[in-house]
Amino acid sequence: MIIDAHTHLSNTEYGNTETYLKLMKEAGIDEAVAVPGAMLDVRKMTEYITGRSKPDKPVPDNLYVEKAFKANQQIHGFICLNPHDKDVLSQLESGKKQGFKGLKLSPLSHQFSFASKGVTGLAELCGNYGFPVYSHVVYSPGASTAKFVQLAKQFPKTNFIIGHMGFGPADQEALEAAAVMQNFYLETSTGNYLHIQESVKKIGSSKLIFGSEYPLSHPGIELEKVLKLNISDREREEILSQNIKHLLQMK
Predict the structure, then answer these.
(1) CA-to-CA distance for 204 and 148, rounded, in angstroms?
(2) Range of the domain at 235
(3) Which stretch is the leader sequence (predicted)?
(4) Interval 176-227: pLDDT, tens
(5) What is the domain count for the chain?
């Protein structure tokens, strides 16, 4: 089985559910974990990363993802929330009732610190719900790899997934955290082949999770990196499906 543990779905011409399902089938991917996309225009991602452009009041379209997983049993959803919202905890509670299975945070879009009250409240509640917390990190004091690791240490009952193997191209801080922390995982999308290979060699396959970062990257291309790794079939199976199935408590 192959599960794409990180894809963005949005009501856009380049990131819609129908297009993703076609690519998913072509690549031989069986199931997927979707989060809302299009809060930023990924076609101009460098503008946001460098600070030349600022997000224009990004609001995650969780309803679009909800419709996707309710219409397609092979899709699972992570709800994306803005920790600055005063009612963010009740939003997470509502998301659980709607069928979401995890939380997606976006510090690039919502400009928050991992040490903020909103984030810590969400992290604690996710532990109670059995929700993994997925986030990328950025090059800023409040939303760095170190701060995300610190958050994971603060809430050992909650599982944390750092997107894109951490802050690229080879985040040793994220790798070291995954090696020693039971609740800390690395997601592979847009990560480079060598770093993924070295990570398996250093910490094993049980802490890596395959994701595609659709529509910024093609699911088949991201999958090919994992298929080309010089690892055993058992290790590949853990990365491609078993680890995320464990976190989502899937049968």
Answers:
(1) 21
(2) 3-247
(3) none
(4) 999 999 999 999 999 999 999 999 999 999 999 999 999 999 999 999 999 9
(5) 1
